[in-house]
Structures are given as structure tokens and as C-alpha cells.
């Protein structure tokens, strides 16, 4: 795939020094991560700590799951409430909308379908949202792999949270203390092959422009491409965020933006057709299937999120009221489902 790395606005950051470097090296990386999240809201993270074999396995299991018959996938259905983010959602079920909460507005947006199907899972020990697994005999090994993958992502989360705290001049464990229960959401996404023209003309969408809700998201994508991130300098202009081997895309969510009094940016992003592969634009083409796996991180549900120390002062008023994680996330989830 042709892509101009020179114009990549999203920095690539190696997290290894945060894990094994000297305190000075760790502080240096923390500064880079902080600046990326302040200026862009996105970073490509190398050495995030999730073993490549687990990532590769997760994509293989995801493909196997979505290759099941529709009736088998529907045996572990997403419940009909937005806040219960577990189980399988078929094509067209969910419509990602940006900050529209009235029913008329949502119905209007739903007219252009998101051409994707998804399977959501979370922490095995979460009493509020038990997982909705496919039966073991249908897809043996799926559950065990994703439990392992979930744990590995949680470990990567911890290192990222420590690093951001250091970068913001907070206690290293400041954010960890708000993320003890690991009530995160891991989502398998499959975007079926679709006629490219439909995506380009906006008659079908993969994921419409949106920001994520929580603290941050760790996203694994395959090589197909199509993820686009809004340009920080030019509203409405979206730049490609292509696959880069050995990295995860990490982005800030709305709750951390609010928590930081808008210092860290929760940047709009979407999934469209991947960049054209060759000069042949005359034929009607199908974009290949695409798979991605976002891991959405949120603070513990009962915690009150209010302006971070250092993000307000006499000349810098607090922009938001305190809110609990649960109030905030449920409000956002109920709007999309
Ligand atoms: O599929 C992707 O690459 C991104 C998906 C995404 O942004 C989301 O699910 O919030
Ligand atoms: Fe997203």
C-alpha cells in the first residue's frame, strides 16, 4: 500500500524505556506520550507489551468467529440495551453517532448504515456485565484466548496509565488508582467487503466520525487500512492512520479529555475505504474485509471524575461538573444502540 510516512501526523513512540529504562529515560518517554495526547490525541505505540503472538491469535479467532453462520453468531447476542456491551451485534445494529442524544437526531443518522459486525467482551470477573460467550463446542479455545488477551491488554493499560501520569506531573499511580477493576471493553470488529464506491460516496460507512468515550483506547488493526483521524489543524480534514507493524494505535477518550479540562485531546476518527491500491479507478471495486480489535479503557464505574490537579487554576476555570464514570459512559452508550 502506498503511504507517505513523511506526512504521518501521529507520532510513533517506543514505550520500552518506560518499562526497562532509567527514570530519566522513562520521564523522556512520558513527555513524548503526554505531548502526543495533548497535541494529536493519538499515538502509535511500539513495545506496548501485548505479545505479538496474542495479537495474531486474536485476529485468527476473530476471523473464525465471524465466519460462523449467522444463526450460530446470534446464539450469543448483544442484549437490546446500549449499556450492556457484550455479545454479538450483526451488521446495521449499531450506529455510531457523535453526541446526538435526541431520538429524532439518532434516527436521522441511522439512515446511512455502518457496515460492520461486532462481538464485545469484558472482564470475566465483572458482576455487572457478565460475558456472553459463544458455546465452547462451537468455537473451542476462543474464550480462553480472549481471556488471556484481555489480561495482556490490561497490563499494557497499566504501563500507559503510569506513563501518562508521569508526563502530566502527577503521582505515577494516580490513574492506576482509578482503574483497579479493569471494567474495560474489548471489541472484535469485522467490516465485510463492500463496494468501494458506496464508501467513497458516503452511501455506506464503516464507522462514522466519532470520539471514544472512556479514558483511552488501545486499537489493533489489520493491514487493510481505512482508519482516518481528524487533522488537529484543520477541522473536517481526515488523515489516514495506516497499519504499522508492531504497533498499536492508542487514543484518548472523552472522559480523560474532560478529566484533564481539555488538555488531552479526544480526537475524531472514522473508518472509510482504504487508500486506493493502484491507479485503476475505473472498475467498481470491492474493498477487502477488514478486522480490528479496540480495547476501550474506562475508570472504575463508581469513581467521580473531576478536574485533575494541575489542570485548573485562577486563570483556568474548570470546564465541567464532576461526573461518575457510570453516569457518563451509560449516557454515551445508550445513544448508539
Ligand atoms: O476499526 C477501527 O479501526 C476503529 C474502530 C473505532 O474507532 C471504534 O470502534 O471506536
Ligand atoms: Fe473509535
UniProtKB/TrEMBL annotation:
It comes from the Eukaryota. InterPro entries: DIOX_N (IPR026992), IPNS-like_FE2OG_OXY (IPR044861), IPNS-like_sf (IPR027443), Iron_ascorbate_oxido_reductase (IPR050231), Oxoglu/Fe-dep_dioxygenase_dom (IPR005123). The lineage of its organism: Eukaryota, Fungi, Dikarya, Ascomycota, Pezizomycotina. GO terms for molecular function: metal ion binding; oxidoreductase activity. This is Gibberellin 20-oxidase. Keywords: Iron, Metal-binding, Oxidoreductase. Residues 182-299 form the Fe2OG dioxygenase domain. Coiled coil: none annotated. PROSITE patterns: FE2OG_OXY. It comes from Penicillium malachiteum. Belongs to the iron/ascorbate-dependent oxidoreductase family. One of its GO terms (biological process) is small molecule biosynthetic process.
